[in-house]
Design a protein that fits this description.
The chain is about 60% helix and about 0% strand. By secondary structure, it is mainly α. Helix 3 packs antiparallel against helix 4, helix 6 packs antiparallel against helix 7 and helix 9 runs antiparallel to helix 11.
């Protein structure tokens, strides 16, 4: 119940200004895609033209800030394994045929439809994509509960599934701690302690 005062806050920055979002890619997109998008954005920004990607989710989210510096910074974050995984935890994954269908809804502005599709199956990507949607909708408690379920079920092979080349080793517990700490930095640890974490 201690959530009420919090519902009106705008969306969390770790989602809004997520490096993957700035680069216009899914959190498990291949390196080539990241570079291609970055090069395209750089070309546009160099001539002061706005650049947008489907994953900006216009109509659902406010547009991300993009500048040459921010593009470079985003790419630099993703070059460090620990940072890469931290930001992966707060962005969309595209892994299954179900994800494709759900993203068709999401990119058309229908978040409820996307969540409904992801609710049909508890896969790593459907849980993660739902929790990102819950953040966007400011349903923080649901987002955290979904994260707990995600790491409980898939935490031990989470990193290898989202990026087979990532050498970082983290257990399910490590991932949940990192998730909670990142969120605490975003919204304030005290706010986070008001949530009923770990309870069913």
């Amino acid at each position: 119940g201690s959530l009420l005062g919090y519902e009106c806050k705008q969306q969390v920055d770790i989602v809004l200004q997520n490096p993957y979002r700035i680069l216009g890619v899914y959190a498990n997109s291949r390196r080539q895609e990241i570079l291609a998008n970055k090069n395209r954005a750089t070309a546009f920004l160099n001539v002061n033209r706005p650049v947008g990607y489907p994953l900006d989710l216009n109509g659902i989210l406010t547009a991300p800030n993009r500048s040459l510096d921010l593009m470079n910074e985003a790419e630099a974050h993703l070059a460090i394994a620990k940072e890469q995984i931290k930001y992966t935890q707060f962005w969309f994954l595209k892994m299954t045929p179900l994800d494709d269908i759900a993203f068709n809804h999401l990119l058309a502005g229908n978040m409820a439809g996307a969540i409904e599709i992801w609710s049909k199956q508890e896969s790593l990507s459907s849980l993660q994509n739902k929790l990102v949607c819950y953040f966007i909708e400011n349903k923080l408690e649901l987002a955290i509960k979904t994260a707990e379920k995600l790491y409980e079920k898939f935490g031990n092979d989470y990193i290898s599934k989202v990026d087979a080349n990532c050498t970082l080793q983290m257990t399910a517990t490590d991932l949940l701690h990192q998730f909670v700490n990142s969120l605490g930095e975003e919204i304030g640890m005290q706010k986070l302690l008001d949530f009923d974490l770990g309870a069913e």
